[in-house]
Amino acid sequence: MMQVRLENVTKEFVGKRKETVVAVENLDVEIQSGKLVGFLGPSGCGKTTTLYMIAGIHTLSKGNIWFGDRQVNTLAPEKRGVGMVFQNYALYPHLSVFDNIAFPIVNSKDIKKQFQKELVEYNKEKKSNISFKKFVEMQVFSAADLVEIRDYLDRKPSELSGGQQQRVAIARALVKKPKILLLDEPLSNLDARLRLQTRDEIRKIQIKTGITTIFVTHDQEESLTICDQIVIMRDGILQQFGEPQTVFDYPVNQFVAEFLGTPPINIIDARIKNNVIQLAGEDWRELPEPLDDQPVRLGIRAESLRIDHSRKFCELCATVIEVSKLGGVITVVAQLKDGGIVKFFQDLANPVAVSDKVSLSVVKNATMVFNMEGGKLVQW
Amino acid sequence: MVKKRKQQKGLAYSRTAFLYLLPAFVLMAIFILYPMLNTIIVSSKYDYRFLTGEFAEFSFKHYVEIIKDPIFRRACLNTVFMVFVCVPASMLSALLVALGLQSIKKFRNFLATLYYLPQVTNVIAAGFVFALIFNNNFGLLNMLLERLGFEPVAWISGVGISGSQVLYNKSYMRCLFVLFTYSMWQGLSLKVILFLGGLSSINPQYYQAARIDGTSKWNVFRKITLPLLSPTTLYVYVTSSITAFKSYSAVVALFGDSYGPAGDNTKMMITLVGYIMDQLGDYLKPGAVSMASTAAVMLLFIIMVLTALQLKITHRRVHY
Question: Which string of DSSP letters, residue by residue, matches B5-53?
């Protein structure tokens, strides 16, 4: 168990035309011990670079990384005590699953020494006299049991499915008993069903071992489901860090709001005039606090919109133009007066059909107002 | 039902396929298949006269004669030296050079081009340059040796060898050394490029994974690079040993068409292809063309057996 602290972490690369490219800028994140944390963002946002800096594959341009109270900036990767699962697993194709998992123990001087020490203690405690080879075998078996691949130890990676390869990669990362587990896009090479299953398994393994886990993903659903905390990045800059539900409900800006959620949050063009929000030139709702007159964008999630059958006046009037079914979830697409599009979920008790006129109301605390730069002005 | 239809379709496809393959097949028949068969036939015609086509009888006497021929044995010995000494040595040095090139960033392309130069240099011209380097009187190497205070060496010399077996063997060793140096230089270029290609096709994530696990450089090379490079290694090995089996021009360029240093009349540096060419040079002599054909068949046989053996041995060592 280990706490990970990133302090002002910056990574600069030299580009092709000798220009400096900032991949990660002044990142400050403190990850508590034993938590599962997801680094989330569109591709090129610096999340993988951050992971590689934590692993020690990339060096830092500025800032510090702390594991507990140890500063690891200049520490070689093998001395950091991290296990890593690569995006394409990086299983050695010429070795069997067993040899792949045993690879770190057998081939690293430091890790070998550590296990030899453990063996001495083990033999003393159990009053046994097992050989190092046998001990390694035991370690491999227990790692394989953890991810349930005991039956495939003799196979080559190419003879395994994507999901099984993923488990082997996790077993190889865990066998050396790291303090921190790093996963780079662990689910991106799996098909949809396997992704759900593996996602839950990663969580299960993480809880079972209690290991501090950091994983990188561009899939918001993944991270919202299994993470204790998420870090959202964009262009190398931290956007928001917090518990998934909090970040989802109270995004700090339009980028975060749009990045999280399926279907994406409804964005509606509007204007503030005399502390009233105007939609298509008509007054809509009064602001809870005074703000300058300016053009703004409203952000309202699909699940926050309800069809209001009781009220006479239109809070948000729209005409249904499409009803799309996706399994159990039915999404209604409707057009506002000014042509803007909103999506909301069908109320199964009172379904609406195409070309129905509906009046929508917004639930409490779910109306977000963003300025044109994407910053959040108010949410109520 | 479905299966049957599929089969029929496959057959229809294959008929058209044969038609497409026909031009290539005709060319192969004319230029490869027929000459091969004819070589085997000619090799069994005893006392064959090339101009008139007359011959005494069909027999395998040539095969007995050729095995007894000391020049043919010498040709076999030299060819085996090329294949089993020069090729592995040049592969090893090519691998080291490729690893070196791989590990540097600056000038890599420039150096790779430099290493590739021997490949585009005329073999005969390069051979003459090497003959000059090793020249006894004004060769570069001897000049260098003298500068460094060593005695100059008569690299390619047959002085007194007809009278003394000891001198003959010494002269032979020196000539082998010259041939070794030349073929190392000549063979390095293509192998370096091939190994570089093989090295760069290894996914760098394997190395990152190994780094996280703290694998030492030697272990990374032994347990990751070498096995993952094995398909390239096999390819390089098979192609360059076949090239070595057919080596001829290098020997001619270095030692002239007497296949040895001046003063040698045993053709001490002859190769199998050299033997064939030598026999063909006397094509008016009855039986000479048959002997050349016999040698060609023997060469084919040796290459086939050894290549099959190599593939069998290396099969277990090539990983995927």
Answer: HHHHHHHHHHHHHHHHHHHHHHHHIIIIIHHHHHHHHHHTEET--TTT-
Shortest Cα distance, chain B CAs vs residue A12, angstroms: 19
Q: Please work out, in degrees rounded to the nearest 5, the angle formed at the alpha carbon of residue B46 by the alpha carbons of B45 and B52.
A: 70
CA pair distance A297, B19, nearest whole angstrom: 68
- Of B39, B54, B32, B72, nearest to B293 by C-alpha is B39
Model confidence band, residue A223 (pLDDT cutoffs 50, 70, 90): confident
CATH hierarchy code of domain A4-81+178-249: 3.40.50.300
* Cβ neighbours around A254 below 10 Å, total: 21
For the cut 80, the answer to whether the pLDDT of residue B249 exceeds it is yes
d(CA A137, CA A115): 12
pTM, rounded to two decimals: 0.78
Domain regions of chain A by residue span: 4-81+178-249, 256-379
Whether A71 contacts A248, CB under 8 Å = no
* Euclidean distance between CA atoms A300 and A268, whole angstroms: 8
* CATH topology match: A4-81+178-249 vs A256-379: no
Compute the distance between CA of residue B31 and CA of residue B80 in angstroms, rounded to an integer.
28
Structural contact between residues B273 and B248, judged by C-beta atoms closer than 8 angstroms: yes
CATH architecture designation of domain B68-315: Orthogonal Bundle (1.10)
CATH 2.40.50.140 is right for the domain spanning A256-379: yes
Residue B116 has pLDDT above 90, yes or no: no
Residue A206 neighbours by CB under 8 Å, 6+ apart = A36, A181, A213
The stretches of chain A forming alpha helices (DSSP H) are 47-55, 97-107, 109-126, 132-146, 162-174, 192-209, 220-226, 244-249, 254-259
Mean pLDDT to the nearest integer, A312-341: 83
Q: Which residue has the tokens 């007194």?
A: B160
Contact B251, B178 (CB under 8 A): no
Nearest Cα to Cα of residue A38 among A29, B36, B201, A349: A29
Best A54, A75, A78 member to test B by mutation, with max B CBs in 10 Å, is: A78
pLDDT > 70? residue A312? no
Report the number of secondary-structure helices (H) and strands (E) in chain A: 9, 21
- Bond from prior residue into A263 cis (ω within 30 degrees of 0): yes
Beta carbons of A30 and A71 less than 8 angstroms apart? no
Chain B partners within 8 Å of A183 (Cβ): none
Pairing assessment for the beta strands A294-300 and A305-307 based on DSSP bridges:
unpaired
Instruction: Suggest the residue from A51, A91, A92 to mutate for an interface test with chain B (most B CBs closer than 10 A).
Output: A92
DSSP letter for A77, please: G
Option in A87, A108, A158 nearest B213 (CB): A108
Torsion of CA B133, B137, B143, B146, to 10 degrees: 140
Q: Which amino acid does the sequence have at B305? A: V
β-pair partners for A276: A273, A286
φ and ψ of A226, to 5 deg: -105, -10
Mean model confidence pLDDT for chain A: 88
**What is the predicted ipTM?**
0.79
Q: What are phi and psi of A210, to 5 degrees?
A: 65, 20
